[in-house]
């Protein structure tokens, strides 16, 4: 590299050292230790431990169809945990994610049933509504500068009320009417809620979508500009803005991505159960957030992965179904969740301290 | 000079000598008022390629206001602000950046948990491939970041380490190297040594010299006259929003500079009063006449 030397220096320019030289102050830590410091490796080991535990504690789990069932349970959590995790890496979180799923399903269901339209019209409108909710959350956040906790808590309460009130107003009931005999239902069901056969085991298509979305999210996060911006706006918003990262765009689009996830899961619910219970979804947002945190995403933003929440969601699905297969009282599920969450947070904290230690 | 080519370091350096003595950035009687508060008044400043212009001053002297005007965060309300000889008025930092004026703030502009190379290219990432598959060119970014850092004399073991694990001085240096790489012609450094230890300050000063040797005009804001004197070619001392001293290296000694910074002129005026008070030793204080270098002081002077 050529350098143009001009002025008379009072302090001389340091010589550019050769490419192989290092400053030699940081000893290279063993591979195993470096791997362990990665949050997604920690949650992977956690998932393996939970799996082995239930393989012994609950013999029915060893069956292929049980595994498929566990994966299905995990996928419905996991599909939402992905955008929630990206949003968390971007420094925000969304309390309205749980009820937004129901809002989306209700929109599609009631619109196509009441107006006797092809279900695809309802599906498309529901997508618009879901993205709109995300846009509103993001826009409010940017405009008011309030913490996302407050903004999305507001949206959560609004949607919870609207879900129930509008459904009662339109159908006179707390659930929507079945749309299983409407135009386009079979088509939509094939995409959102079909089942396929793998070596005699029935696997739900959401498992495939879950893994496809996870791969996509990982690629975006680690290999694209946008992924770089997600880390930056979560890690230090002001710095990101100062070097030219479009902070507003990144934050709002992340909320809209959560909207997309809510739409997808909402459509799955609708097309696998034909009707929607308007009061559901409350509490699910915390499950998504917990899956992301267990998956190694930093609650304060700036660190995490897309693959971690996949294992986080798997741990949830495993525990939820495993307790049933083991014949225990399902009430233990929430207690298990709490323990896993606290454990994950403590590990995260330790990792962050290690990573930023001078 | 709008042919700034980001991504090809060196191009902006080679064409600087053609401009001869014309300053890259010049302030003529510039000032700034916030409502009825006059934060800055009648400031003259010139930044030449390959020279370090030091701006010194105590807290509240107007240093921050001065750099905010040049870096595009605020606009001046009086006087003139010229870049390459033409009057300008920036409304965003982006406009200043587009004219090659980069500012390195004390804490700002790095994301601690992100790897060094990602921080280096943050906001101006290199990509490859057509749109739906457009992805980061990680290989090239790492290589470039490594080369650029080495050119500035910064050697890091691992570009993958979070930048938060670097020392304060190293982080400053990465920020400086980044500004140099992205085509900065004028580098504004806002108290880069303020929070650093002696050794770390030395490291940063070394990179200021390296940036200067690459032909950049450097504005070095500091309240430490010793640091300023080690690399500075020109010294401007701000006091209560006005220019108290503007002198080339040849016209001022470190001692005089220190006196000005320590409020020497005011202390000298106080000397006679203090002499009346019992128990105050005034022998060591300089006389007003010793501070002859303050020839460039603005007519308004101090209160």
Automatic annotation (TrEMBL), chain A:
Q: Would the keyword rRNA processing turn up in this protein's UniProt record?
A: no
Q: Which UniProt keywords apply?
A: Cell inner membrane, Cell membrane, Membrane, Sugar transport, Transmembrane, Transmembrane helix, Transport
Q: Which residues cross the membrane?
A: 35-58, 70-88, 119-142, 149-166, 201-222, 243-266, 286-303, 332-351
Protein's UniProt keywords contain Transmembrane helix: yes
Subcellular compartments: Cell membrane
What is the role of the protein in this entry? Answer: Part of the binding-protein-dependent transport system for D-xylose. Probably responsible for the translocation of the substrate across the membrane.
Kindly provide the name given to this protein in its UniProt entry: Xylose transport system permease protein XylH
UniProtKB/TrEMBL annotation, chain B:
What PROSITE patterns does the database record attribute to this sequence?
ABC_TRANSPORTER_1 (PS00211), ABC_TRANSPORTER_2 (PS50893)
The alphabetized UniProt keywords are: ATP-binding, Nucleotide-binding
**InterPro entries linked:** AAA+_ATPase, ABC_carbohydrate_import_ATPase, ABC_transporter-like_ATP-bd, ABC_transporter-like_CS, P-loop_NTPase
Domain ABC transporter, chain residue ranges per copy = 25-265
Q: Where is the composition biased (Low complexity)?
A: 1-16
PANTHER family assigned: CARBOHYDRATE TRANSPORT ATP-BINDING PROTEIN MG119-RELATED, SUGAR ABC TRANSPORTER ATP-BINDING PROTEIN
Give yes or no: UniProt keyword Protein biosynthesis.
Answer: no
Q: What is a single molecular function from GO for this protein?
A: ATP binding
Give any Pfam family that matches.
ABC_tran
This one is known as Sugar ABC transporter ATP-binding protein
Region Disordered: start and end of each range? 1-23
What SMART domains does its record include? AAA (SM00382)
């Amino acid at each position: 590299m050529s350098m143009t030397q001009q002025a008379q220096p009072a302090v001389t320019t340091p010589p550019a050292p050769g490419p192989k030289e290092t400053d030699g102050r940081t000893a290279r830590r063993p591979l195993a230790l470096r791997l362990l410091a990665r949050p997604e490796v920690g949650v992977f080991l956690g998932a393996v431990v939970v799996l082995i535990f239930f393989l012994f504690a609950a013999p029915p789990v060893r069956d292929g169809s049980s595994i498929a069932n566990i994966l299905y349970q995990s996928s419905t959590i996991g599909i939402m945990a992905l955008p929630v995790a990206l949003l968390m890496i971007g420094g925000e979180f969304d309390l309205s994610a749980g009820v937004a799923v129901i809002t989306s399903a209700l929109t599609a269901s009631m619109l196509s049933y009441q107006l006797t339209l092809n279900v695809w019209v309802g599906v498309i409108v529901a997508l618009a509504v879901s993205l709109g909710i995300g846009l509103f959350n993001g826009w409010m956040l940017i405009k008011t500068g309030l913490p996302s906790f407050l903004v999305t808590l507001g949206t959560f309460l609004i949607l919870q009320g609207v879900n129930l009130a509008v459904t009662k107003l339109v159908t006179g009931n707390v659930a929507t009417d079945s749309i299983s005999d409407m135009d386009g239902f079979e088509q939509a069901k094939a995409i959102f809620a079909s089942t396929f056969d793998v070596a005699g085991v029935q696997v739900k298509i959401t498992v495939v979508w879950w893994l496809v979305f996870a791969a996509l999210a990982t690629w975006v996060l680690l290999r694209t500009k946008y992924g770089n911006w997600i880390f930056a706006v979560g890690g230090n918003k002001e710095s990101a803005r100062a070097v030219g990262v479009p902070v507003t765009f990144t934050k709002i689009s992340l909320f809209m991505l959560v909207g997309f996830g809510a739409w997808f899961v909402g459509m799955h619910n609708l097309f696998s159960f034909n009707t929607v219970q308007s009061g559901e979804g409350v509490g699910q947002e915390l499950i998504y957030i917990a899956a992301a945190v267990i998956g190694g995403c930093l609650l304060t933003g700036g660190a995490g992965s897309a693959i971690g929440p996949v294992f986080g969601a798997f741990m949830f699905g495993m525990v939820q179904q495993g307790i049933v297969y083991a014949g225990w009282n399902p009430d233990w599920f929430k207690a298990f969740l709490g323990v896993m969450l606290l454990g994950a947070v403590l590990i995260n904290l330790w990792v962050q301290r290690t990573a930023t230690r001078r | 000079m709008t042919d700034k080519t980001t991504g090809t370091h060196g191009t902006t350096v080679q064409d600087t000598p053609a401009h001869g003595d014309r300053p890259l950035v010049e302030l003529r009687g510039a000032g700034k008022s916030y409502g009825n508060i006059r934060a800055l008044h009648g400031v003259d400043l010139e930044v030449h390629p390959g020279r370090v212009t030091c701006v010194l001053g105590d807290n509240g002297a107007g240093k921050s206001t001065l750099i905010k005007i040049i870096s595009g965060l605020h606009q001046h309300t009086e006087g003139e602000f010229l870049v390459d000889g033409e009057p300008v008025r920036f409304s965003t930092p982006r406009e200043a950046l587009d004219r090659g004026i980069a500012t390195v703030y004390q804490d700002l502009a790095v994301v601690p948990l992100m790897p060094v190379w990602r921080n280096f290219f943050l906001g101006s990432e290199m990509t490859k491939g057509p749109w739906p598959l457009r992805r980061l060119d990680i290989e090239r970014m790492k290589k470039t970041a490594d080369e650029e850092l080495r050119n500035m004399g910064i050697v890091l073991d691992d570009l993958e380490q979070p930048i938060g694990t670097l020392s304060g001085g190293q982080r400053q240096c990465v920020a400086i190297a980044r500004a140099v790489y992205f085509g900065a012609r004028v580098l504004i450094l806002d108290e880069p040594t303020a929070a650093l230890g002696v050794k770390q300050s030395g490291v940063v000063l070394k990179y200021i010299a390296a940036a200067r040797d690459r032909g950049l005009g450097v504005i070095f804001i500091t309240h430490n006259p010793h640091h300023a004197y080690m690399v500075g070619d020109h010294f401007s001392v701000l006091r209560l929003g006005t220019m108290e001293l503007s002198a080339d290296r040849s016209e001022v000694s470190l001692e005089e500079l220190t006196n000005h910074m320590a409020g020497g002129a005011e202390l000298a005026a106080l000397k006679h009063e203090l002499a009346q008070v019992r128990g105050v030793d005034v022998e060591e204080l300089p006389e007003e006449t010793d501070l002859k270098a303050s020839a460039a002081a603005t007519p308004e002077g101090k209160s």
